[in-house]
Structures are given as structure tokens and as C-alpha cells.
Design brief:
Layout (H helix, E strand, L loop, with lengths): L5 E5 L12 E8 L2 E6 L3 E6 H7 L11 E4 L3 E11 L8 E4 L2 E4 L2 H8 L7 E10 L3 H7 L3 E5 L2 H5 L6 H7 L16
Parallel strand pairs: 5-9
Antiparallel strand pairs: 1-2, 1-10, 2-3, 3-9, 4-5, 6-8, 6-9, 7-8
Amino acid sequence: MDLRHQFLIAMPGLDEGYFGGTLSYLCEHNEEGAFALVINRPLEGVTLGGIFDQLAIEGVAHRDVPVLDGGPVQRDRGFVLHSDDCCLPATVKLQPGLALSTVREMLTAIAKDEGPKQFLVCLGYAGWGEGQLEQEMADNAWLSCPADLTTLFEAPLETRRTRAAESLGINLALFPGAPGHG
């Protein structure tokens, strides 16, 4: 089972924990584990402008863009999930149209409005060890569905999880354990 380039939809059973209500994009999945970025949870009060100021990056573009809580691992490390129209030597192409960068130079390009047309900036990531994600999926903690760039970059943050579930014909509000049910 290769889940790369899939969305992970947190099921209502996860609502009490860190991943409650989240939608994640699986950047990597192999026999050693999985790496994903949460794509629908903004960090309260944190914008790109604050990151630019903290890192002494000059530029006035995109200062009001929210920074996302990418996951509970290495929360001091930044990741830029972006369209592949702007790539640097250290950029990893994930699939046609999508790339991942972790270097300061990408933030500098974004600040100067010379970066990718579409992007998400995340602090931290979600990671699973060998077989861990597969077990959590067997335990019905997660649903997966094909990722799409419209949901990833254009849908409002608060609708992304619902939109991904609806792509499978699922209304999350009807699941046991969802608020108002069970």
C-alpha cells in the first residue's frame, strides 16, 4: 500500500488528540514509515510576516499569509509545500505540479514575490514509524483519498477536511463519535 500523494482525513475518533479535525498531505510513504504535513490548521497569530521578521528576510509580499501547524514533530523546522513553477536545487519534486522545499532561499523568494504561485508554509511535520500508519488506518483512525491541488492550495482552511471526505462521498458528521452522534 503506497499512500504517497494522498490526503489523510482524521476520523472523529481522533478528535480528542493532537490530530483532531485535521487533514494531512502525505509527502512520503514507504516501508520505513510516513511523512506528512497538516494542511488545515493555522498557528494562532503566526503569519509569514512574523517569520520573515524573525529570520531577517526582506520583502513585503505575502506577509499576511498564515503559517500552518504542520505536525507535532520538529515544530521549529519549516517546510514549504508548493507548486513546482519555482524550484531551487534543494527542492524535492513530489509529483507533477507539486514540490517541497525546506530552505530559507524559498522563503526569501516568496517574500520578494518571486517564489511559487501556490504555496503553504508549515512548521513541524507528522511522522510515523514502520507499519505505524498502516496500523492506525486498520484501527479506523484515518481515511485516505487522492490529493488534489485545488483542495491543497485554494480551498479555505476550515473546509479542506470536509472537502476531502466529500470526494469519497462521505459526510463526516454522520460518523459514530462525531459531534451530536454516537
